[in-house]
Amino acid sequence: MTDIPELTQQDFARAIPARVRKRLAAGIFESGDDVAALRRFVALTQAQFAQAMGISIHTLRNWEQGRRHPEGPAIALLRIAARHPRIIRENLHSVA
Hints:
Elements: H1 9-14, H2 18-25, H3 32-42, H4 46-53, H5 57-64, H6 73-83, H7 85-95
Helix pairs in contact: 2-6, 3-5, 4-5, 4-7, 6-7
C-alpha cells in the first residue's frame, strides 16, 4: 500500500473551503481576497499566476487589492483555475 504523506501547515494555508471553491468555480468572485486565495491554492506567485493567465501582474494586483474586478474572459479563466488548478500550472510551463 502506498503511504499517503501528511498534510503540512503550508498545505493547510493554501486550502480553500469547499463552499468557497464551489462559488469560485461558478465565477462568483466577491472580493480581491477570493482572487488571492485562488492564486495561493494554485500555489503560484503573483508573477507566475499572471503569466499563466496571460494578464499583467498589475492587473492581478489590482484584482487582489480590490481596486478592479475581473470581467468577461478573465472570469472564465479564473473559473478554470478554480476547477482545474493543474491546468493553470501546466500553462505556466508552456508559456515560460
